[in-house]
Amino acid sequence: MRTFCLLVLPNDTLEDIFVCNGCVGSYGSILKMSRNFLLPKSRFCEFFNYLKGLGKFFAPVRVSEQSFSFKEIENEGEIAWDALRTILPPKKFFYPQRETVLKYDRNEVEATVPEDNFQVIFGVHPCDLAGLGIMDTIFEAAPGDTHYTKRREQSLVIGLSCMPDKYCFCQSMGTSCPTKGYDLFLTDLGDAFFVQVETARAEQMLAGCNGLFSPVSENDKDSYKEFWIERDKAFTNGFEPDNLRSTLDMEWDNPLWDELGKRCLSCGNCTPVCPTCYCFDLVDIANLNGQSGERQREWDSCQFVGFAQVAGDYNFRPTPVDRLKFWYRHKLHGFDDPYGFKTCVGCGRCTVSCPSGIDDIVDVVKRLQGNNEQPNK
Amino acid sequence: MNNPISNSRCPLTPTRGVIRSIIPMASDNTLFQITVDGDALSDCMPGQFVQLWVPGVGESPISVCSGHVGATVELTVRKVGRVTSALFQMNEGDWVGLRGPYGNGFPVEAYRGKDLCLIAGGLGVAPIRSLWQYVLDHREDFGKITLIYGMRHSIDLLFRSEFKMLLRRRDMEVFIAAEELCGPALPPISVQLGRVTDMIKAASLSPTVEVAVCGPPVMYKYVIDELKAKGIAESQIWLSLERHMKCGIGKCGHCFVGGAFACKAGPVFNLPQLRLLPEAVECA
Amino acid sequence: METNPRPCIAVEGLTGCAGELLVILENLDKLLPFVRVASFPFAQSQNDDGPVDIAFVEGSVSQPHDLEKLKRIRAKARWLVAVGNCAVWGCVQGGACAKCKVTDMLEAVYGQHSEIQALESRPLDAYVNVDVKLSGCPIDKTQFLSVTASLLKDHLPYITHKPVCLECKLNENPCVLIEKNLPCLGPVTAAGCGALCPSLGAACYGCWGPSQAPQMDAMATILSEKGYEALEIMNRLKTFGAPEHLFERMNV
Questions:
Q1: CATH topology for the C8-152 domain
Q2: ipTM
Q3: C-beta atoms of B82 and C158 within 8 A
Q4: C188 vs A304: CB contact, 8 Å cut-off?
């Protein structure tokens, strides 16, 4: 078990809260820039209706006994408040599964532009907010992706607090307290939401519904702190990420990869569900007239056999072992060099979406680290 | 989101280019000269590549094979896949799309003032040609130049007339080798029987020489061994990496290797850099 | 005024359910402005046997006259396109032939002395060179039209054989293999159907044929861990004509 310590500095203001657990930054760093207020749950309906007036409103809804999905909703009763992870992460709102990037007709090539459509994405948990932050870095790196950025600019992202289940390990990945990627964050205090306004855009948009909010009291601040301390304690998997870099480098030839590879279906389920998997394929679709057509991009997966194959049929990752190992390294170490961060945000989606049970990152890393406990599943 | 870019041009949109001339070369290779609108490619450096788009078919990453790119870019293309097959059906005057130039290219700034050894295997001669043309354009900036070009069959020799000129130059040394001598002799070009590695053995290379290599992935290991046997430091050995480059701009993920997008950080890496990229290349 | 004659197509059926012929017929109005239909016995009575640019052939080769017909078509077509699982993989009749002798089946159905001649049911490429394989059961009309558009320009179409799981996840369906323990073959089956069955909560039964490099052994392992019997697993995996060599690494 990890040990936690809470440092509350003498000047007991929210800005000074520093929850220290060895790897997670301070929530206070978010608060410094933000304005806080309270939204009583009794007024959430009005809040919802106000936001709905701004554009399409998306929130997690239940789609099966075990699964949730971000869908457009018409009334607040549809929100699945207990949704921990949706099947697909919210990246789909900015980087849709399939989209047309250009059209051509005879000599003319025309880049398509996403429609003007304001959208509110509600109920995004910290891991997914961190994921959006990572997607921002990738798609905004020069030359920036105009489709992604336009959709990002016309969206309001509202974060929501959560309590981890046994698959969650955002705390270990340092993503339990994201510092970018959203406009508003709501912490559930029981009968009210503690609201943090992060961006000027959100501030501007809320101008029309300020009557719904009340100022935070000392009590509310205490409840807020208590919630996040409790949440920190709720992580149970004891995943130590400190030596990820060296572990992944050192264990590149560990026989564990062969063991996992044998079970790998190469179905690619682990990648669309990942909040930070960004890979795509580009496909031309020609019209029958032979003169016009369009070019689409569609999510792709590094787990498919053709992914790293070059013309002339040379394949750089021909086996499931090669591809699975690549994916693990890419999530846990691959972006250390270009960007200085890991691309796993600890949401646990791959673990619950893998039909073979081999994408249990926590378990696999523990075994690579030399902890040979067998998975308890 | 500090710099709104949504109004700027989508980086996946190609610039239109018109095929000016189609020059058949040995075996399945053809040299395409393509003129692009504006100066889209004029800052292209040796070793960089473009994404060539055949409308309705798709894109293919192709190395630029000319050292000086103005409005016209030269691409040597081998018919190996869907896109290149479609390109081979096109005629002079037809249009294609081009995006780029992409990739880091060969580090010509680091080469300045040094001896250079350029090693090409097979179609790897295309990007190497951009480098020798650039270097010969700026001849006084570089020391001794050695060019080694190997192929399987002597009949596959590309850029014949250009090699005739190169062989006449006194300010560079040229070695051409084929594993099998076939077809008519090509005087005054003398193709020797052997491999690229034999030519490296035969060449006199100073220990400070900078080496640029491009060829099929299987060639690299042997070339590296031979160069190191000559006492050339790993940091002076630069390899151009082949990968499945789909977008060219570090987004689509297909070329990601180790900790780098080969299309952005590469395709040219020196050996110490490559060692940090697992699965990049066999470099014992 | 047209200067060039329109390209010619032929649409022919061997042993199959005519499902692909139906899809092509339903979309013929989109093709007609750009092609001349030289032969389509399923849909028109005036057919000529002259050379064609593209021949779409449905069905598997299951009888001697199928084979004769196929060879005739091959000889007259520049592009031969196998349409549908029967033509590409051999489908159910091919899957059955992998398990039982064709003479036994013939006798069981038609009695001892029937005049019916049957071959072991095989896909087209068992006998002739096939230029393009467009699987499906039936084929997808959008894919059919875009493949035809490519071929009309003499371009090879881009047909990937990524697994059904991709389309299923892009549709954001709950996974029936995980959540309902259904014997879903999505991981080893070629996509193109839009993950139709899993989108309706049912298991994929592999009707588009195998995906590229399907991990059959891993699939069998996972299904057996869910309690499915080895025989049932093999029956499911082989029903739609997946060729034997894909099962080489398996120890079921």
A1: Rossmann fold (3.40.50)
A2: 0.91
A3: yes
A4: no
